Amino acid sequence: MYMYFGADASDIRTQSHSGATVADTRFVQRLVVSTLRLMLMWKRSATRASRAIPIAGAGIVLGSYDLAVISVALAPIRTQWHLSSGVVASLGTVTLLGMLIGSLTAGFLADRIGRRAIILWDVLLFMASAVMAAFSPDFALLAVARLATGVAVGIDFAVVFPFVTDAATSNNNGSSNKGRSMAWILFGANFGTLAAYGVGGMVLADVGALGWRVLLGSSVLLALPLLLFRSRLIEAPSWSELTPLTLRQLRRRATVALKHERLGAQALATLLYQLTDQGVGLVLPLLLVTILETSASSGALDAVLVKVVTIPASLVAVLLIDRVSRRRLQVTGFLGRAVPLCLLGFALLYNIHLSPLIIGLLLAAGYFFGAAGPDKTTVISPSEYAAPEIRATSQGLSQAAGRLGGILGVTGYAILVTLAGPGAGILLFGVACLLGAVISLAALPRLNPIITVSGDESADS
User: Angle at CA 61, nearest 5°, toward 327 and 21?
Assistant: First the structure.
């Protein structure tokens, strides 16, 4: 890989172009091999529950790719249409707004009419919005396309995990591996983000200013095999055996869960985590371009180097998710992300010189602890402990809170950067993580799963 913090795109091209070509080829080969392995899991899996895992994981990969690819495209879009930083950053906010809408509506609908139909239509929406974005003649239509993309991503995150939990329950897997199965799904999200940053940097370097259209339209290629696989799914028997609640009953049950059960506290923790994660994720390449004064392609490639630590971090989460309490993982992850972000924010705010390497290490440390803890627990827990009849509704509400946090993060960052520079924006993310740790420690005394075993809910041990 040819990534240098602070290097310009022209420097990269002149430094060992043949070596760069080899690195690009190897990157694409690894991406293809990983995708093929994921597809083979479909054929080799022995049960419907295990088949649901790679299919769901593929959807999360696609959603993560769609979210990250817009951050790579922001700089060239700003240049081509002569937009201000605030206006172009609103594309990230619009995407998150769509995710909020998708999460809220899909959760209720999935508990009312079932999961399968929704995650099928969801893929079609992915494809349509990608085509619209790639051929957008102006900023307004591009914003509409990104809103639709956000709705599709929000639907997927709200429905996929209840679907997998239902499938695992129907297969009588017990409680021992459900958390790990869903952690594996979230593991796939890292590859979606890395692919967006890596492919984005290479496309912008080779294609130029119009490369952002290629990037936004590339989601169609990822969505086609996903549509094929999901068309072969069936509804989980554990949901089919339930008597669906009316929308009014769902609202009442969800209100009770928010007020008197763990859902409210966990939704707030999800909001705070996504404030930092979506906030940093959507602005990371642009942030590196600003801090290091590099080109858009170099910023995207540097972001890969920062983000790649989420791979080993996610593996740590997979290993620990069913061995360590959810609360411990969540609190440790929040604190581990808060410290480096606060240090980096203070250093930039008070003009303390840091080398590009130190900046990269601090950002990487924040990503590592987040990916090893709250990145998994805040997503997994609502599906685990919610009653089967409101499982998707609970997941959707928690995810909607996270998208609201993402909107606050992106908007807050944009405002603070305008007023006081990028240091103030990063400090916002660090403080949010500190609050997330406090809430997780105080309001979630035991964050262990309430798992269904043969259709019955059991209390915490």
Answer: 125
| Per-domain residue ranges of the chain | 21-234+244-457
| DSSP one-letter string for 92-106 | HHHHHHHHHHHHHHH
Q: What are phi and psi of 456, to 5 degrees?
A: -110, 140
> What digits encode the pLDDT tens for the residues 253-296?
878 777 766 788 889 999 999 998 877 776 676 667 666 666 66
Report the predicted TM-score, pTM, of the whole model to 2 decimal places. Answer: 0.74
Between CA 162 and CA 395 the distance in angstroms is: 7
User: DSSP H helical segments within 82-134, as ranges?
Assistant: 85-113, 116-134
> What's the CATH fold of domain 21-234+244-457?
Growth Hormone; Chain: A; (1.20.1250)
Buried b / exposed e over 434-456, threshold 16 CB at 10 Å, is bbbbebbeeebeebbbbbbeeee
Q: Which residues contact 351 (CB under 8 A, 6 or more apart)?
A: none
In terms of Cβ atoms closer than 10 Å to its own Cβ (0-12, 13-18, 19+), residue 142 is: buried
Residue at token pair 């049960």 = 47
H or E stretch at 294: none
